[in-house]
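The freezer alarm interrupted the setup, so I double-checked each line after restarting. Inputs confirmed:
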Amino acid sequence: MADTIILEVARFSPERDSQIGYQTFEVPLRSDWMVLDALNYIKDNIDGSLTFRWSCRMGICGSCGMMVNGVPKLTCETLIAQFAPGPVRIEPLEHFPVVKDLVIDMDVFLEKLQKVRPWIVRKDDRLPAREFLQTPAQLEAFHQYSLCINCMLCYAACPVFGLDQDFVGPAALALAERYNLDSRDQGAPERTDVLSQHDGIWDCTVVGECSTVCPKGVDPSLAIQQYKLTATKEWFKTWLLPWGNK
Amino acid sequence: MPQYRQFQYKAYQPVMSPYWYFDRWPYLKFMLREMSSIFVGWFAVVILLQLNALVSGPTAYANFQHWMATPPVFIVNILSFVFICFHAITWFMLVPRVVARQVLQRPSPDVLSAAPNFGIWLVASVVVALFALRVI
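Predicted 3D structure, all chains:
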């Protein structure tokens, strides 16, 4: 194995540039280094102006998502040695506005997330006297969707979001379904207005890459298709049953 | 987004290439899967033409068979067969992405969702082959 590897890192300065450019860095190639370690090596030893987000270094905070050789990855859990002999191209997550270098503007995602009300909604605002009880089966129904860390890799992998920025997108839809499937939640009818629109579930064409790239094993594609079935059943009920739309 | 503009940064807004599906194999596979519907439609038309020829008498059916054996139609049919296989395989492989995988209230492996479709396809193909070869 060579001692070093070349990184082609996307650079963008909002004051200076109108397009993204690439800068080449040679970094040590170590078998236990993640891509994030290599970026930190550049920042600490070569160019302190290189800008990127990171925090926990253990795949929990979801901050360090970037395109590594064209694929959305959490850089803190992507070994750099697998790309030897290189070069490795590091770019900001696709489909998002770029603030600087590898930092994206995540406002568009946060707005969508808020719209689907990803919290437990109760009809009754009073605090319950005791905690809500759940059976293991009720927990299992939504558990995998609750593992989402909002890293936005699924948005970077989704060409539908790239083509139509109004699409609610995989993570927000998966989190909406997570609360819809939660036995403690009563907010499904309120979420329907957002989810069951053309820009909601019906924009999804089942490319399936959102589920493939998810670092936590969440399956947003499954959540979206599950909700398509629910929405279809609800629609038929409103037409077939006299009390269906009540 | 904040309402003020004075100190707002000028973000780079990426533009998606019209040829985005050439960027990665999964995207190209998706586009080919969508495009394969054209060939599914073609085979549906062929079956309708075949049925029409069948009810129109032996001469019409012989003409239909002759037309099917012409090189352009033969090539289109071979191409259609390849794309229909691709269509079926890619959609069967997507079943775990679109169906909740629960066996005995536990998530099941992807293969358990996809395998029955391949099994039914294989059995149906064998039955059709036995008919075509006049074994049954």
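Quick read of the result. The longest strand of chain A covers residues 4-11.
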